Amino acid sequence: MIFAAVLIVCAVFAAVYWPGVAGRMAYARAAAAREVVGESRQLEIGGANITVNIAAGRTDLPRPRLFAWVTRAGRAVAMYFAGFPVSRAIVNVRAAPGRDGIFSGFTFFPDSGTLTTRIAVGEHTTEEALADDWMMTHELVHMGFPAMADEHHWIEEGIATYVEPIARAQDGQINVESVWQQLVEGLPNGEPEPGDRGLDHTHTWGRTYWGGALYCLMADVGIRQATENRLGLEDALRGIVAAGGTMEHEWTIERALGVGDKATGTTVMMGLYEKMKAAPAPVDLDALWRELGVVANGSRISFRDDAPLAAIRKAITEPPRAKLAPAKP
């Protein structure tokens, strides 16, 4: 199941991440310096120029399939943000001999001055695995939010975790049921446990990825309730990007959330942050699913359109109303 892979890969990634972003950036630079590019292409997606470098190395899939995989991920991100969030980006793909699957995704801002995603594709990765992949989209979403101090890493990962399946559904890559299945199964991992001191102070894997995603869902629902379903989280994130809040720049969390609230004319994001930053703030997910009309029966998801917040649930995964706009310089 896709979700099981999400849990396993994110857990491994989290274990690697905790030594610090600086260490991983140094590793990425050193590893890239040792690699020879086998083929490079320029992709034009959502107003952005994305350079995709595929390192020399054998894969069962031909290279055009790898370029198409990156294109799909970029298209999903551009769909959600109504334009790719930065004007230039680099994606470095390396082949991993004797392995299959997609792993070791990492996005950073190197000395070269161009946001870069580095990711590995196993030699024996199949077309089906590329179609099911979430990691490339997750990494590219990171580009659409400013870099945060370490204690706020949860919002960076939470946004990428929450937006990724929604963006893919909006672009028709996965069905809507899959989005809610992942949220139903994943969000309990983000609930506080005994001793929790809030999202800014509890840096476990569950609270970082799924606690951050839980914040995003609550913000999305709250913005839609406050605006009579005219606006949602994507409008807040687009507003942050429009103000220059991309991963190329380090902002305070207060600045980012304040800009997001201004874009929607609400105080939802800052209000939720004040509630969740230093206190457990559990969410009654069962009640939330009932209000949204999400019905889980094992691995099967169905919907109730007579639920109080059914219109909000539908709006969350609908393709954006705005056409794709050029990326911000």
Report the span from N to C terminus.
Answer: 39 Å
How would you write the strand order of the largest sheet? Answer: 1-2-3-5-4
> What is the SS-derived class?
alpha/beta
How much β-strand is present in the residues?
5-15%
Query: Secondary-structure element order, as H and E?
Result: HHEEHEEEHHHHHHHHHEEH
Global morphology: globular
Number of strands: 7
* Estimated helix fraction: 40-55%
Radius of gyration: 19 Å
Largest sheet: 5 strands, mixed
Number of helices: 13
Please, what is the average pLDDT?
90
Which stretches are poorly predicted, pLDDT < 50 over at least 5 residues? 1-19, 322-329
Keywords:
single chain; 329 residues; alpha/beta; 5-stranded mixed beta sheet; two-stranded antiparallel ribbon; 49% helix; disordered N terminus; disordered C terminus
Structure description:
This protein is α/β, with parallel strands linked by helices. The chain is 49% helix and 15% strand. It contains 13 helices and 7 strands. The strands form 2 sheets. The protein has a 5-stranded mixed beta sheet, sandwiched between helices. α6 packs antiparallel against α7. The longest helix is centred in the middle third of the chain and has 22 residues. The N terminus and C terminus are likely disordered.
